[in-house]
UniProtKB/TrEMBL annotation:
PANTHER family: PROTON CHANNEL OTOP (PTHR21522), PROTON CHANNEL OTOP3 (PTHR21522:SF36). Residues 458-498 are annotated as: Disordered. This is Otopetrin 3. One of its GO terms (molecular function) is identical protein binding. The keyword Iron-sulfur does not apply. Keywords: Cell membrane, Hydrogen ion transport, Ion channel, Ion transport, Membrane, Transmembrane, Transmembrane helix, Transport. Residues 482-498 have a biased composition (Basic and acidic residues). The chain crosses the membrane at residues 55-81, 87-107, 127-150, 162-180, 192-212, 257-278, 299-323, 343-361, 381-403, 415-434, 534-553, 565-585. Its main location: membrane. InterPro entries: Otopetrin (IPR004878). It comes from Gallus gallus (Chicken). The gene is OTOP3.
């Protein structure tokens, strides 16, 4: 780096000396118009402009976040002076501004000549964009349920409660389309405007997430509506704002509660993708930053990891179904909480042990560290560490509540063990993933194994296998002349013969693939084999631990222990802060573990 800087200084000094030594009336103007002069003079100006643009856009986002946070906090502490409708109006204004900028970027900025010369291959992987579409779709359905719930009670609702979800649907759909197609852009024009637009969109998503975390008014209203339905069934009088159609109300209420966590997930994913785009504004990617040998995902080299992981997934689905049936009733069953926490207490230590083993194997490897500057990789590390704080915070709150009340109770002891094990599991898994992401992939070994696999697929492993050639067809026709005559005479036997041939070819292909899989597995070193097994096992475990809280298993709120200790509103805010981060961590760790698996 020092040599490059010195050469650039000499280079620019040469430019300046040549222009200064030129006699009057000569071609000084030609030097100023030359690429050499512009390169020397614009090199430092580009860096200063980039830093100034990032600083200005960051300050803009900071002020917007502080303003929105002040509105939301004022609504919490004084809901008479600042109402929820006031917060919705502010957020609607911000979303309209973001929509205007996104449409301008799609129709104007990105279509300018030389606007997108480089694309960051690490930014916006398929699993991130797929989860973006999934959570965006669920967020749209959430707002549809909210609109339907407000329309049924139109006499007791304000028009803002219908307009705000409508703007939200348009904002979510447009933003998802924008991030799906342009998350990899390294825009080279309109730097400052693009940075400000991206930061404004990040600030808006952060405020939407903060509102979803702290706003429990809709949940309280749904609970009161359910109580009113019970009173109506009992024959008591209710107020005029009760739902006229109990079945429709119940559908909207249950759908809203089920889809509520997806909206917070969508906001967090959008913030991460938009931040990478903000870092890539004006970025020029040189050829040595582009990975020429990029490993691909192949389900080869693993046997025990998929088996153990599949067993964990199947058992977890059974536990989840039993929990959903029993714990969501009017009187939650004590045994189902014991079963739920027991499943975690068995699975979490196993995940901790394999993560520690994988970290030890990483230290024994001789792979070089990936020292190239990559904003996506840096953000992955920050997100893993930051998202883990949500579940760790909830675990510590639970530990304090249990120790202060009755730690000797069976259920409390299980919750205490569950909270402690979760902290250790998050820490050990983060160390394993981050250590694996920072290492270079086995490029040479991967190429060698690809060659072996190609040779294996080219050489016939069994008699009758291999590539079909005209000579082989002729030999086959000479070997079975009578069968061809029967086919020409009896057309009704043509279909069974073709089916028999297809079954034989399918069996030969299956055997060839099996032999290739066994060959690849046997030629892996024990370190690579162990890393692939560990990574795949942890991928499946994190998938089931993502499914259970995402689709409604929330024992931290439904067991009643922490809620009674901290109070409803306080524990609601803690759970809505930690639970979306926990779900986001599981989803993000799956992507990181897949990259560790591919590079191993």
């Amino acid at each position: 780096m020092a040599g490059n800087k010195a050469s650039k200084q000499k280079f620019c000094h040469h430019c300046n000396s040549r222009s200064a030594s030129a006699p009057p009336g000569t071609s000084t103007i030609h030097y100023e118009k030359s690429w050499l002069y512009r390169h020397c003079s614009l090199q430092q100006r580009d860096r200063q402009a980039q830093k100034s643009g990032q600083l200005f856009s960051g300050l803009l986002a900071l002020n917007v976040v502080f303003l929105g946070s002040a509105f939301i906090s004022s609504m919490i502490f004084n809901h008479v002076a600042i109402t929820l409708a006031d917060v919705w109006i502010l957020l609607s204004i911000l979303k309209v501004l973001c929509l205007c900028w996104i449409i301008y970027y799609l129709l104007g900025t990105s279509r300018q000549p030389h606007a997108v010369l480089y694309r960051d291959t690490h930014a916006g992987p398929v699993w991130i964009r797929g989860s973006l579409l999934l959570f965006g779709t669920f967020s749209i359905l959430l707002n549809v349920f909210q609109i339907g719930y407000s329309v049924i009670q139109i006499n007791c609702k304000s028009k803002v409660e219908i307009v705000f979800p409508s703007i939200e649907i348009l904002f979510v759909a447009t933003q998802a389309f924008f991030l799906w197609h342009h998350s990899k852009d390294c825009i080279q024009v309109q730097h400052n405007l693009t940075r400000c637009g991206l930061m404004l969109t990040i600030a808006t998503n952060l405020l939407l997430w903060l509102l979803a975390v702290t706003n429990d008014s809709i949940h309280m209203e749904i609970e009161s509506q359910l109580r009113e339905v019970e009173q109506r069934l009992a024959g008591n009088e209710t107020d005029s704002c009760a739902c006229p159609n109990t079945t429709t109300c119940k559908v909207f209420q249950k759908g809203y509660i089920l889809l509520y966590p997806f909206n917070t997930e969508y906001c967090l994913i959008c913030c991460s993708v938009l931040y990478v785009m903000w870092k890539n504004v004006g970025r020029r990617i040189s050829h040595h930053h582009i990975t020429h040998i990029k490993p691909k995902f192949k389900l080869q080299g693993v046997v025990f990891g998929p088996l153990l992981g599949a067993a964990a997934v199947i058992i977890g689905i059974c536990v989840f179904m039993m929990y959903q049936i029993q714990a969501t009733g009017s009187a939650p069953n004590y045994q189902v909480f014991v079963l739920y926490y027991s499943y975690y207490i068995v699975l979490l230590p196993l995940m901790c042990v394999v993560a520690i083993i994988g970290t030890i194997i990483h230290t024994l490897e001789k792979r070089e560290l990936d020292t190239l500057k990559n904003p996506t990789r840096s953000l992955d590390v920050v997100l893993l560490m930051g998202a883990a704080l949500g579940q760790i915070a909830m675990s510590y709150f639970s530990i304090v509540a249990i120790v202060a009340t009755n730690p000797r109770d069976m259920l409390n002891s299980l919750i205490l063990s569950y909270s402690v094990l979760l902290i250790f599991q998050y820490i050990t898994q983060n160390i394993f993933i981050i250590d694996g992401l920072q290492r270079q992939p086995f490029a040479a070994a991967e190429a060698q194994h690809t060659t072996h696999a190609g040779q294996l697929s080219a050489v016939p492993e069994l008699p009758g296998e291999g590539v079909t050639t005209p000579s082989s067809n002729q030999e086959r026709s000479q070997t079975f002349p009578s069968k061809e005559e029967e086919v020409s005479e009896e057309h009704n036997r043509e279909a069974p013969d073709q089916r028999r041939v297809s079954v034989l070819e399918l069996g030969q292909e299956f055997r060839r693939v099996s032999l290739s899989y066994i060959h690849t597995y046997s030629h892996l070193g024990w370190k690579r084999k162990a890393l692939k097994e560990i990574s795949f096992f942890l991928v499946l475990c994190n998938i089931i631990l993502w499914i259970m809280p995402t689709f409604g298993a929330h024992p931290v709120f439904e067991n009643g222990l922490q809620k009674s200790f901290y109070g409803y509103s306080t524990w609601f805010a803690i759970v809505n802060f930690g639970l979306p981060l926990s779900v986001f961590y599981r989803m993000h760790s799956v992507g990181g573990l897949l990259e560790v698996y591919v590079s191993a």
